[in-house]
């Protein structure tokens, strides 16, 4: 029988199974890292935290309400196109995968799962959510006073520091390298507040950078798209360096996962190498697509001017 809902060492509620059950078929008996907490299987790898569920449900509800108002009367696509609405759904799905099921729970046991969680928060969810025109949907969903307040907050955030592409790029590099230092990651895995601070910093840095990149896609000023492409290349290079470090290291770099990965039936170095490949290859694809789009826009500019 599957175990009942239990609180993990970090305090989030997850479904679990007994310590003798493994995630992978044929993995053999597993020993629980913490007393009373079994190795999660995919069906039990849930993190049900109000810190995540409440904002996600609120955003999804307001976006859906705004979309319904904009599209009312048979005007589907008005204000927000169908692809943009699909981008919103995909962005929410990426956040659910990263924070609700399964990567947050499995990230306690596998570095590769933890890395997939980070890359969803940093590189996948932000461009999807921003492509969905969330301000337009939220403004349509809120009453007039709420819409005015939303626009006032957006204007207040348009300070020089937050409009700096260099600062946003450095923030992305800092969260990537800073949180993947063994001591920092160990602290985040041991402390619930630090754990959510880590995830919030990944999502915040991603939203910051991709907001500025989207602005450059819409901006007709010469050089804006090229500057965005340079920022993307800088981030991709840093991701590549860190991914290569994890992939080609000949020793485990994280004691936490050296103890826990075998309980999933994973070889420690294989798990670490897979984490590096996640950062090195699939996580770079959104940035590569963004760079190609920006460069294509920049190279097409003279033809439009002519």
Automatic annotation (TrEMBL):
Keywords: Cell membrane, Membrane, Transmembrane, Transmembrane helix. GO terms for cellular component: plasma membrane. InterPro entries: Caa3_assmbl_CtaG-rel (IPR019108). The keyword Membrane applies. The chain crosses the membrane at residues 42-64, 85-103, 115-132, 165-190, 196-214, 226-248, 274-296. It holds the Pfam family Caa3_CtaG. It is found in: Cell membrane. This is Cytochrome c oxidase assembly protein. It comes from Luteimonas wenzhouensis. It comes from the Bacteria. The keyword Transmembrane applies. Its main location: membrane.
């Amino acid at each position: 029988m599957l175990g009942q809902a239990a609180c993990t060492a970090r305090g989030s509620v997850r479904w679990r199974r007994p310590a003798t059950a493994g995630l992978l078929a044929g993995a053999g008996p597993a020993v629980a890292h913490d007393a009373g907490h079994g190795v999660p299987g995919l069906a039990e790898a849930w993190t049900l935290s109000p810190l995540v569920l409440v904002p996600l449900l609120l955003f999804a509800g307001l976006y859906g309400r705004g979309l319904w108002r904009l599209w009312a009367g048979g005007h589907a696509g008005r204000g927000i196109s169908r692809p943009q609405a699909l981008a919103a759904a995909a962005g929410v799905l990426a956040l659910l995968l990263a924070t609700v099921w399964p990567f947050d729970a499995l990230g306690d046991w596998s570095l590769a799962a933890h890395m997939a969680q980070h890359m969803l928060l940093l590189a996948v969810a932000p461009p999807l959510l921003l492509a969905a025109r969330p301000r337009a949907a939220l403004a349509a969903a809120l009453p007039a006073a709420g819409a005015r307040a939303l626009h006032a907050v957006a204007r207040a955030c348009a300070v020089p520091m937050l409009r700096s592409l260099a600062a946003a790029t450095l923030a992305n590099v800092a969260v990537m390298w800073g949180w993947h230092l063994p001591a920092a990651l160990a602290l985040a895995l041991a402390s619930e507040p630090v754990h959510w601070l880590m995830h919030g910093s990944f999502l915040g840095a991603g939203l910051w950078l991709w907001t500025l990149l989207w602005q450059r896609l819409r901006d007709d000023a010469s050089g804006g798209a090229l500057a965005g492409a340079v920022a993307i290349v800088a981030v991709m290079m840093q991701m590549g360096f860190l991914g290569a470090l994890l992939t080609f290291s000949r020793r485990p770099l994280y004691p936490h996962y050296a103890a826990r990965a075998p309980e999933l039936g994973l070889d420690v170095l294989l798990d670490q190498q897979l984490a590096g490949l996640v950062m090195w290859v699939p996580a770079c694809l959104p940035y590569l697509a963004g760079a190609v789009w920006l460069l294509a826009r920049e190279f097409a500019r003279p033809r439009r001017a002519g």
